[in-house]
Amino acid sequence: MHTGHPQSRWITRLEAVVDLASAAREVISRLPVAVKNCPADFDLVTQGETPTHCCLLLDGYLYRQKQGSDGRRQILSFYVPGDIPDLHSLHLGLMDHTLTSAGSAVVGFIPHEALQQAIASSPALNRIILREMLTDSSIAREWILNIGTRQALARVAHILCEIVVRLQVVDLARDMAFHWPVSQADMADACGISTVHANRVIQELRARNLVEWQGRKVTILDWNGLVTVADFAPGYLHLEHAGKRPRSV
Amino acid sequence: MHTGHPQSRWITRLEAVVDLASAAREVISRLPVAVKNCPADFDLVTQGETPTHCCLLLDGYLYRQKQGSDGRRQILSFYVPGDIPDLHSLHLGLMDHTLTSAGSAVVGFIPHEALQQAIASSPALNRIILREMLTDSSIAREWILNIGTRQALARVAHILCEIVVRLQVVDLARDMAFHWPVSQADMADACGISTVHANRVIQELRARNLVEWQGRKVTILDWNGLVTVADFAPGYLHLEHAGKRPRSV
DNA sequence: CGTAACCTTGACGTATATCAAGGCCAGTGG
DNA sequence: CCACTGGCCTTGATATACGTCAAGGTTACG
User: Fold this and answer.
1) CA angle at residue A41 from A167 to A138, to 5 degrees?
2) What's the CA dihedral at A145, A148, A150, A152 to 10 degrees?
3) Which helix or strand (DSSP H or E) is residue A202 part of?
4) pLDDT, tens digit, 9 for 90 and up, residues A14-52
5) pLDDT for residue B244
6) Measured CA distances, A198 to A151, A161, B126 (Å)
7) Residue B147 · residue A192 · CB < 8 Å
8) How do residues A90-131 score in pLDDT, each as one tens digit?
9) Contact A96/B138, CB-based, under 8 Å?
10) What integer pLDDT is reported at residue A29 of this predicted model?
């Protein structure tokens, strides 16, 4: 699946978001990264733990989840290759949620210590990491808006829009098609709706010729239509630096 | 309303959350703070702006809000005295949401430049600020769980629990009573429910003798009962350092 | 070829939205 | 001091998006 230098995916992503000084690129590529293959539905970090490393996602998808005491699960965000979903563990000891793989994934583990040192030695890297953490929290805010104000159809559409744009940054959604090993039940938990309703909503998206969704492959058939249904505005992703935008179909 | 050194409120709060080195306390108390009174419903920072200062809330409440294109408003979080809701503006230029006062408030403006310098000169302050930003994003994640998985009654109860705990950190909720200038319509927009339903839910909380809510004053009558209804677990607030916990009634 | 995970469908129930009206209170102007 | 006003809360009637239950169908995989 993923070949070559493990941090190259992260660098690709960063170059789309920030002006990556070659010095910072140096520092990043010298980080020790232990690559590991994860099976599907594997918990990389669990709520209540105190991690000692960060996870750089190299291939596949991860998601954050959190459960209330009644057992209902909420998915809090998805991650695409190039993301480091648990940067916050550098500063907040206890994990307040669980990080899980959606489908099988390839993850690079970077020890906190090494990352801390790299950050201390490179103000540019420090700024980059801050931006990454803050963008993550901006995405969480949009997720609140999504669940709090939009109907189920728009919620599902919105998540699809977000994923496509984020995948395009790392060039994983050519022709608006992408691998998506996330079940309808997972989508339901991400949107705060029931599995049955998620299914009906997805069928509606298909019926409107907005998306094709077969097995684990999703294709956006009508980007503008989907954006309209989703009420999607990509500003919250803070990609302004790159100017990379999804291509219309 | 608020008297004395403007940053003393922040220091009070920080002492409840981190082990505040006296050096950091020094740095903080030397920050230039321009104090300003805000009327109710005043937008301190608006979506799309590029702020040049941060807002230290000294008295009253602020909240973040964001609107979809259909005009439906979502409140993303509330802030209590001692909070700095827009620390992220130090690193993300464009505001992706609006910051508004709930009731009249007293705010101290700190120029980005001064704050950046202080952070650069004090690694302790740097860690503190990071913790503050990351706690904010942990709160956002719990907000997602709240809206995504819980029924309206629990949603409202949960927000009340969170506010009480956060107020107690700065000693503003003695005897489980606090000033709460947030209308039922605002609560509705915070919970992702309609105003009418918010009203009915609040009446239900009253009927169960969990809270008293008259005008702009809220009193928790049965903390344990409210926590149960809300499915509230304060870990996500990351107050572990203080050991400050709400007193039961 | 069997089994389990996942998707799909229908019938029915309910939490919550919407609409519309009325009530209460605080502040304002005469 | 009283009528007036606007904001907020309250209430009832009705509508609907979505949940739940239960069963059957499909697909992937060993």
Assistant:
1) 45
2) 120
3) helix A195-207
4) 887 777 777 788 888 889 999 999 999 999 999 999 999
5) 45
6) 11, 16, 43
7) yes
8) 999 899 999 999 999 999 999 999 999 999 999 999 999 999
9) yes
10) 87
pLDDT tens for each residue of A195-231: 999 999 999 999 999 999 999 999 999 999 999 999 9
Q: Which of B184, B219, B214 is CA-nearest to residue B199?
A: B184
Q: Tokens 């039922």, residue?
A: B184
> Is strand D within 7 Å of residue B151 (CB)?
no
In eight-state DSSP terms, residue A96 is S
Cβ count within 10 A of residue B151? 11
- Residues in chain A within 8 Å Cβ distance of B69: 231, 233
Residues paired with residue B35 on neighbouring β-strands, in sequence order: B108
Under a CB-based contact definition with an 8 Å cutoff, are residues A56 and A110 in contact?
A: yes
- The one-letter amino acid code at A184 reads Q
Nearest nucleic acid nucleotide to B186, CA to C1' distance: D8
Q: How far apart are CA B141 and CA B132, in angstroms?
A: 15
Which residues 6+ apart lie within 8 Å of A50 measured at CB?
A89, A93, A94, A95
* Rounded Cα–Cα distance for residues B30 and B7 (Å): 9
How far CA B72 is from CA of A145, B63, B66, B129, B189, in Å, comes to 9, 16, 9, 32, 8
CA dist A82 and B235 (Å) reads 29
End-to-end CA distance of chain A: 27
CA of B193 to C1' of D3 (A): 37
Q: In what order do the strands lie in the sheet containing B217-220?
A: B177-179, B217-220, B211-214
Going by their DSSP bridges, the two strands A217-220 and B53-67 should be labelled as: unpaired
Chain B neighbors of A72, CB-CB under 8 A? 149
Q: At residue B79, what is the residue type?
A: Y
CB atoms closer than 10 angstroms to residue B214: 8
Pairwise CB contact (< 8 Å): A148 & B147: yes
Q: Tokens 């930003």 correspond to what residue? A: B133
Q: Which residues pair with B138 in a beta bridge?
A: none
Residue A2, pLDDT > 60, answer no
